[in-house]
Amino acid sequence: xxxxxxxxxxxxxxxxxxxxxxxxxxxxxxxxxxxxxxxxxxxxxxxxxxxxxxxxxxxxxxxxxxxxxxxxxxxxxxxxxxxxxxxxxxxxxxxxxxxxxxxxxxxxxxxxxxxxxxxxxxxxxxxxxxxxxxxxxxxxxxxxxxxxxxxxxxxxxxxxxxxxxxxxxxxxxxxxxxxxxxxxxxxxxxxxxxxxxxxxxxxxxxxxxxxxxxxxxxxxxxxxxxxxxxxxxxxxxxxxxxxxxxxxxxxxxxxxxxxxxxxxxxxxxxxxxxxxxxxxxxxxxxxxxxxxxxxxxxxxxxxxxxxxxxxxxxxxxxxxxxxxxxxxxxxxxxxxxxxxxxxxxxxxxxxxxxxxxxxxxxxxxxxxxxxxxxxxxxxxxxxxxxxxxxxxxxxxxxxxxxxxxxxxxxxxxxxxxxxxxxxxxxxxxxxxxxxxxxxxxxxxxxxxxxxxxxxxxxxxxxxxxxxxxxxxxxxxxxxxxxxxxxxxxxxxxxxxxxxxxxxxxxxxxxxxxxxxxxxxxxxxxxxxxxxxxxxxxxxxxxxxxxxxxxxxxxxxxxxxxxxxxxxxxxxxxxxxxxxxxxxxxxxxxxxxxxxxxxxxxxxxxxxxxxxxxxxxxxxxxxxxxxxxxxxxxxxxxxxxxxxxxxxxxxxxxxxxxxxxxxxxxxxxxxxxxxxxxxxxxxxxxxxxxxxxxxxxxxxxxxxxxxxxxxxxxxxxxxxxxxxxxxxxxxxxxxxxxxxxxxxxxxxxxxxxxxxxxxxxxxxxxxxxxxxxxxxxxxxxxxxxx
Length: 785
Hints:
Number of domains: 5
Number of strands: 24
Number of helices: 27
Structural class: alpha/beta
Radius of gyration: 33 Å
CATH class of the largest domain: Alpha Beta
CATH architecture of the largest domain: 3-Layer(aba) Sandwich
CATH topology of the largest domain: Rossmann fold
């Protein structure tokens, strides 16, 4: 049976099982398709898991539906069943259905049922499934593990199930908060903040249960408040690590209810009492959360050092008692609790942000993963500039506004390093071709020698630095080919893009640089008189290949537009003879020549087997192009806009002033005929003159009336009837402004819930609002103020 057929059969079994469970009095109440189960062999995904109570982690059975040729289903079933607190599992094969029982001596066949043969009707399968469910019910009642027998992986899966329930709601909360400027952690994506809040809450529960400090009678709405009071009674190290964070968001009630249920279940099982078992549970949970919380692993061996180490955002290097540790608050809290359970001291200095670290004592080895791509607003950049004065007291930097947060963190950590200190850093893989790369690279080369740059993947690279090291050579390591070396002037002064090309270009293309057939002008000055030739070269297969490395993941400018749009940034080009040849080709073709035609002109000059896709035949592509080759899923913004309209404007659009006059019985109305757009004149003794597009002017009796007319005009109204009574006008105008503000906030909030990119969410919401017959947000906000 093919995989698709097997998946379809499994889904059909799940539907039939749900129907039978709904009609029966079985304790089994729910069935999940391929849930994630953490086991000693890693994460496994059993085909079907039956639950008595999913929230309490009470599983009833595991059913595996392996392909006929599979011979490892019994071991997978044993691992999954044991991790879910069961002594049994079922393997539904092509010929037989086997009920396996887990005994101290190994696996034992409890019962075997013949599977319906291929081609049987649905009734046969339903009848067999009913037999299977009845037997699972018996095994569940007769043979579940006792709380003392439950393995650590059972408690881990119980906690992961609870976290999976609460994290989506927290993500929505954090997205909205960040869109409104209420995020407590700058430079941290809202999704990561949600993961951090959820895991920190779980660590607090585990610590308080272990020390028997969590009140037993507390209700869900008071759980977090009770925890924070109880934390004050803990030992100093735990109290500091688990204390509430500045600006920390309280748990919403529905999420507090879920954590309350989880805490009661953990207390019922006694899962946090045994120090050794709790430590193992926390280790597994921390390992599972490190990647979602921005932690990474270094691939190269860690250098030895005698002084203190600074370890930032690394999953595979545990800090020692003399080290400095930088990690999200939840992982710091987990680390402190783990060391408390193991009887060891925590790291000497802990911080959630590198800029919270002190300036002394200087670490002799810094190991860090710096990956935050967030560009910062002016206020945050000013705060980080002040932080750099701690790490660089004698330097003042002029950094570009597009420098992402990881670049600021890199400079700060570099400044903290001791004299002759070493740094091993994991950074984004495309930074050498970014617009800010030269500023960052030149700043580092003033005080550091760059010993090695290693390409890890299309998205990541590692850098080895030594402060005042004096080395005059840089090794560039890219898997699949020999290492390259930049020595002397190239190591000290070559532009960052030259380093990117040396790191990523295939050998045949890099040879063109070594032989002088291609060159890179650091000033970025392309020949002005050969602009058309430059455009055609970039459109060739070789030019496209170079763009994949040099273009910093940007789309290639259109034909005849490269020289104008790329500006003064450097780009690898051939000599003038070749550009002159391409210039003539451009002049001879009114339309842009095809890539094949351009390649044919270049063939005598560059003996490369180039294809039209920009690949060098029989040679490895640069690692940086892997990301570009991967299709990026796109959102249907039209459907998203329609969804936003249906959800936010389900009650219709407010019509001013008609919808606001219903509460006033036949007020006297004054008609205004408007020629849009309106221009406001200077007020004179409270009266305001408004001028239409046709040049006709009219006067209104008050500033209030002028605001009402302008709001109606901004909504596209050409005729408007407004009450003459100023009190009525003030009442309806205030209500209209409040409704507009409420609708606009609801639109932004919903857009941020549907889109993870804040800038894209604001853009989609703004375009939708522009299409509606409503005043622009800037207009009614100004009127409301």
